[in-house]
Specification:
The chain is α+β, with helices and mostly antiparallel strands. It contains four helices and ten strands, in the order ααααββββββββββ. It is 27% helix and 29% strand.
């Protein structure tokens, strides 16, 4: 599944509980600065025009009670734990993490936020099921793929760098590259459980 959801509170640098007066004040400050006539450079003019469109869209949605209620109904799930300048770029899944190695075909840019949601059971063929969706513990042995991350947890690989994944965790990518998923354990391709992973990709939308 793919769709884009902009974080209107982040675009205007306001909070969910900000008053209409506070939203309007911040909008006027930003729209004045972002006006294309403020810039002589053509590239900056184009960027300012795009920013103006974003600001107007955010202001329209946050000052119309019906639109604001619709946005608030999804805000808590998508954005309450994510830094405010980021907007949801795409939503993917479910990916079935069987046999430990999944190429998601998701192209990640440096600075993107990757958020993982997981459900199901991690089942190692030699040891049977691990009870939680993550099956994670501390004290990861040195011979595991990512000894600095949680044992038996979901780990995310981008351009030879491992990041901690799991049930509603996120990280900021320091790399460009494809996203791979696997279990942080010592046996490659031994997970025969029903682990399903959803991936939410956020990109910086700073105005």
């Amino acid at each position: 599944m793919e769709h884009q959801i902009k974080n209107y509170y982040g675009i205007l640098s306001v909070h969910k509980n900000s008053s209409i007066e506070e939203i309007t004040k911040k909008y006027k400050e930003k729209i004045k600065y972002s006006h294309p006539d403020n810039f002589k450079n053509q590239t900056k003019k184009i960027l300012a025009t795009k920013n103006t469109v974003l600001l107007n869209e955010a202001y329209s949605n946050l000052t119309d009670p019906t639109k604001k209620n619709e946005f608030d109904s999804i805000y808590d799930f998508y954005f309450s734990t994510i830094p405010s300048p980021y907007s949801l770029k795409k939503e993917y899944g479910p990916f079935h993490v069987s046999k430990d190695n999944v190429d998601t075909s998701i192209s990640v840019n440096k600075g993107d936020i990757i958020r993982t949601l997981s459900k199901g059971t991690v089942w190692f063929s030699m040891f049977g099921p691990i009870l939680s969706a993550n099956g994670e513990t501390y004290n990861t042995p040195d011979n595991y793929p990512a000894p600095n991350l949680l044992k038996n947890s979901l780990i995310c690989l981008i351009n030879n760098t491992f990041y901690q994944g799991g049930n509603d965790r996120y990280f900021v990518s320091n790399d460009n590259g494809q996203l791979y998923l696997r279990t942080n354990d010592s046996f490659f391709e031994d997970n025969f459980g029903t682990w399903e992973i959803y991936v939410l990709q956020y990109s910086l939308t700073e105005v």
